[in-house]
């Protein structure tokens, strides 16, 4: 629910399409680093939302999807399916935003959302630990 609100509700921004990976993020990083007060630079907030926000938004999906898929797949297979699910959901959102006049479509969202899904799946793998070897009978 919240993910759809954050990604599909109209915003007061000009419609745009960015298909060049990391170009805007790189520009923002350079601006922030060149500023005498980086945390007060307007691009700093952009980076928080664009990078941190998009990654964090998809961590729970990666964690939950890897957990659900682990009932039917080996752990790494479940993680891979979770990442594919996160990528597919993010791609679907970006394609929907492409059709909305009040939203922007950005390939970076796809990159950072998928990164969040990877982190979520990795957290589940770390949390559940390594598989134990089968007990040997002596």
What can you see in these coordinates?
This protein is mostly helical. It has a domain at 54-128. 68% of the residues lie in helices and 3% in strands. The chain has five helices and two strands, in the order H-E-H-H-H-E-H. The chain has helices at 2-8, 23-34, 42-69, 75-99, 107-128; strands spanning 17-18, 105-106. The chain has a two-stranded parallel sheet. Helix 3 (42-69) crosses helix 5 (107-128) and helix 4 runs antiparallel to helix 5 (107-128). The radius of gyration is 18 Å and the shape is globular. The model has no long low-confidence stretch (mean pLDDT 89).
Give the C-alpha Rg: 18 Å
Task: Estimate what percentage of residues fall within beta strands.
Answer: under 5%
Strand order in the largest sheet = 1-2
Counted beta strands: 2
Give the overall form: globular
The rounded distance between the terminal residues' Cα atoms is 54 Å
Q: Give helix % range.
A: 55-70%
Oligomerization state of this entry? single chain
Number of helices: 5
Structural class: mainly alpha
Query: What string, H for helix and E for strand, traces the elements in order?
Result: HEHHHEH
Mean pLDDT: 89
As residue ranges, the low-confidence spans are: none
Overview in brief:
This protein has 5 helices and 2 strands.
List keywords for this structure.
138 residues; mainly alpha; two-stranded parallel ribbon; 5 helices; 2 strands; 3% strand; globular
